[in-house]
Amino acid sequence: MFDSLNAGYIPICIIVVVFAWLIAKVDIVGIRVVLTLVIPVAISMAYFFLPRFLDLFRPLKFGEDPWVGWGFIASATWSIVAVPASIISVIVFVRIRRRDKHGN
Q1: CA pair distance 103, 11, nearest whole angstrom
Q2: pTM, two decimal places
Q3: How far is CA 7 from CA 4, 12, 47, 80, in A?
Q4: What is the pLDDT of residues 27-39, one digit of tens each?
């Protein structure tokens, strides 16, 4: 499985902040809100499942712990931190972009 759940927080939050900069460019507020909430969860899931993608199709060995359920738990745990980081980052970046756009 993975060594530590704590090892995922910093890389996921860095990726979320980068995506928040891109989300802040979206002009339609409704789409921006949906992306702000969905993208961090997708990043958390991708962080766990992409390195193990081929293992999803491999049958479990005798006595091997089914790890897919733990992957969803890890993704949900990382999302608890990633979603607020995304919300705060998007708000800050939207304000920065508005300030730069209006020249204040």
Answers
A1: 33
A2: 0.83
A3: 6, 9, 11, 15
A4: 999 999 999 999 9
